[in-house]
Amino acid sequence: MKSLTKGFTLIELMIVVAIIGILSAIAIPNFIKFQSRAKQSEAKANLKGLFTAQKAYFQEKDTYSNQMIGVGFQPERGNRYSYDLSGDSGPWQDRTTSVLSDNATETGVEADTFRYGSTSGISAIMTNAITTGVVIGALGSFTGGASGNIDSDPTLDQWSISSIARISAASSDATTSCAAGNMSGGEPCNDFNDV
């Protein structure tokens, strides 16, 4: 007597492979998008830390400073964003080696290319799209910026924070997520959303 073994037909296997392909086509882009949004939390957290450091410095010295170490701001290693307070070209803390500099006059912090390498798409240079700077004095203010390439395409994700309320202009660019209207001081603004 013959025993009848049952199995899957080729058509059934092809249907399963097609379903897995469709689910992958939907899930992978969403996963990459959520991964990029998680990386953006670094910029928001560090900019809030910069704001807190500047406010503490102001309470003690009655002025703001454009020197990162002077105000007590130094992000941990492994940062994907560059941070700037001066609006000019430096000096910036070099993060291409294992040893960090401790120059008290550094006005920016480069992205950590020592950890991620220069081929990872991280930009160590702040672009001029964000106007950063410090107005010194008892009536002063500051605006700090963060810029990084979190998804390895040519455009940069850019954030800013300010000590004063800002009006964020509505943009026709769909990638700009700052809404029109008043933004209170100390609130990170995504000037250019690269997600």
Q: Would you give an account of this structure?
A:
- This protein is α+β, with helices and mostly antiparallel strands.
- It has one domain (40-192).
- The protein has 3 helices and 9 strands.
- The protein has helices at residues 10-61, 68-71, 113-116, and strands spanning 82-84, 92-93, 108-109, 133-135, 141-148, 157-162, 166-168, 181-183, 189-192.
- Strands 1, 2, 3, 4, 5, 6 and 9 form a 7-stranded mixed β-sheet that branches. A two-stranded antiparallel ribbon has the order 7-8.
- Strand 4 (133-135) and strand 5 (141-148) form a beta hairpin.
| Poorly predicted runs of 5 or more residues | 170-177
Q: Kindly state the number of beta strands.
A: 9
Major sheet: 7 strands, mixed
Quickly count the helices: 3
The proportion of residues forming helix, as a percent range, comes to: 25-40%
Shape: elongated
Provide mean pLDDT, rounded: 80
Q: Report the sheet-strand fraction.
A: 15-25%
Element-level helix/strand string: HHEEEHEEEEEE
Structural Rg: 23 Å
Specify the oligomeric state: single chain
